[in-house]
Specification:
GO molecular function, one term: oxidoreductase activity
Distance between the termini: 24 Å
Shape: globular
Number of strands: 12
Strand order of the largest sheet: 2-1-3-12-11-4-5-10-8-9
Family: Belongs to the isocitrate and isopropylmalate dehydrogenases family.
Helix content: 40-55%
Bound molecules: adenosine-5'-triphosphate, magnesium ion
Organism: Halorubrum glutamatedens
Keywords: Oxidoreductase
Protein name: Isocitrate/isopropylmalate family dehydrogenase
């Protein structure tokens, strides 16, 4: 049966980089059924809804979704979409490539961020004119599920350099109950599975990562910490145009570049398609096309090292020229 892949370009450069990623997927002899759907500012302007019910349902029923970016409506779109695919982990690789200027060229780290709870699932309250509060949610079940995913991830050799262990970052010395639970459950699963896991306080991690990223491979984090620390790692590798991400669910998944709509360059045909194309590689792997996903990565690396490059990487090639070069090297 064909894999049903929903394609949502969204706004801004999403309209340029998502078609590029689809072109790469189409280069393979895989039976995809692409279904186009709408979300974001443009559809909100037209219909009043940033995420039409039809889009939500199409995404929920599909095998995977490739998403570009949404502008002002980003939170109204992406949070429900993560829910539609039942995502429990956000996978954020940050890898520096030869030939691309990076603050830390040796960076090759994959963040596995808890995607359903923490402070993002907490409830904010204004209790008085002086006092606002936030509750934080941590369950053993979500912590264990994330840890199980991490064990499989490194067990399958998907960690940088095939590393077979992971690091858990937390702040359980202060948040003894919530991060204490998170830490305990993650480490317990690793031990049950016979997987090497070490731990790091997240503030110490934030210092040590930029000083020497080579000491880390796969990093497992609570939701907010994963958000912040993966952005920190993004800063080490040379540009938003390179960074893919995956919201992985039990059956389904949502794959999207880390960057937004880039209104400053939207519509000019000069956006870097790499982040979207690498998101498509993650989508391929998620659907079991592991060999093809690897071929996309290799082609992207080859183009980054000596092929045409877009303006953000100091070149003057268009989105289409870079995409054609990637397809050519598949
Ligand atoms: P949004 O609110 O949608 O996130 P933004 O203004 O924050 O929009 P981003 O998309 O986050 O814009 O991009 C930040 C900067 O990085 C912009 O200057 C943008 O041009 C650049 N940038 C982001 N993605 C790419 C890309 N794929 N190719 C080239 N430049 C990019
Ligand atoms: Mg942005």
């Amino acid at each position: 049966m064909a894999d049903e892949v929903v394609v949502i370009e969204g706004d801004g450069i999403g309209r340029e980089v998502v078609p590029a990623a689809v072109e790469v997927l189409e280069a393979f002899d895989i039976d995809f059924e692409f279904v186009e759907a709408e979300a974001g500012d443009a559809v909100k302007e037209a219909t009043g809804e940033a995420l039409p019910t039809e889009t939500y349902e199409t995404v929920a029923d599909a095998d995977a979704t490739l998403f570009g970016a949404a502008g002002e409506t980003a939170a109204d779109v992406i949070l429900p979409l993560r829910d539609a695919v039942d995502s429990f982990v956000n996978v954020r690789p940050a890898k520096a490539y030869p030939g691309v200027d990076a603050l830390r060229p040796e960076t090759d780290v994959v963040f596995l961020r808890e995607n359903t709870e923490g402070v993002y699932a907490g409830h904010e309250d204004r209790l008085s004119e002086d006092l606002s509060t936030l509750t934080r949610v941590v369950t053993a079940s979500a912590s264990r599920e994330l840890a199980e995913y991490a064990c499989e991830f490194v067990g399958d050799g998907r960690g940088p350099d095939g590393r077979d262990g992971f690091t858990v970052a937390h702040k359980s010395n202060v948040m003894r109950e919530t991060d204490g639970r998170f830490r305990r459950e993650v480490l317990a699963v690793a031990e049950e599975r016979g997987v090497d896991a070490d731990e790091e306080l997240m503030d110490a991690f934030a210092t040590k990562l930029p000083l020497d990223p080579s000491q880390y491979g796969v990093v497992v984090c609570p939701n907010l910490a994963g958000d912040v620390l993966s952005d920190l790692a993004a800063g080490l590798v040379g540009g938003l145009g390179l960074l893919p991400s995956a919201n992985v669910g039990h059956e389904n998944g949502l794959f999207e570049p880390v960057h937004g709509t880039a209104p400053d360059i939207a519509g000019e045909g000069i956006a870097n398609p790499t982040a979207a194309v690498l998101s498509a590689a993650m989508l391929l792997e998620h659907l079991g096309h592991v060999e093809e996903g690897g071929r996309v990565r290799t082609a992207v690396e080859s183009v980054l090292s000596d092929g045409p490059r877009t303006g953000d990487l100091g070149g003057d090639a268009t989105t289409e020229e870079v995409t054609a070069a990637i397809v050519d090297r598949l």
